[in-house]
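Table S4 entry, Probable LRR receptor-like serine/threonine-protein kinase At3g47570.
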Amino acid sequence: MGVKGTVGYAPPEYGMGHEVWTQGDVYSYGILLLEMFTGKRPTDDMFHGSSNLHNFVKAALPEQVVEIVDPVLVQEILEGEMSAKNLPNEDSVRIRIKFEKILISILEIGVACSAEFPGERLDVSDAIAEMCRIRNNL
């Protein structure tokens, strides 16, 4: 037998022979969220030793969210602000703060789903509910 899953996305317990299960899928989902929003793969060269994508994001939240998010996402929101030049400065600041809060919330879900130990991971139904809440607040 071998490890089931793709390196970086398979949960740690699969490497110890654990059967495939929902909590493993939750881990993979969390890593995928972190990858999509940071633009960094879990196998990136910057992660070595005990460093990994999960710990990288967790250490940066919430204060450094803009620094770790994929620059393309940040650029898109800035371009959106520029195209809405008629907005008063307070509205522009409000949009930026809302954008940061949304990013923090999404990345917190990714971190909660990709916890090393299965018992510490967010339940899949709670992750879905949180993502829906974020979408509905847009």
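Residues 13 and 21 are 10 Å apart (CA to CA).
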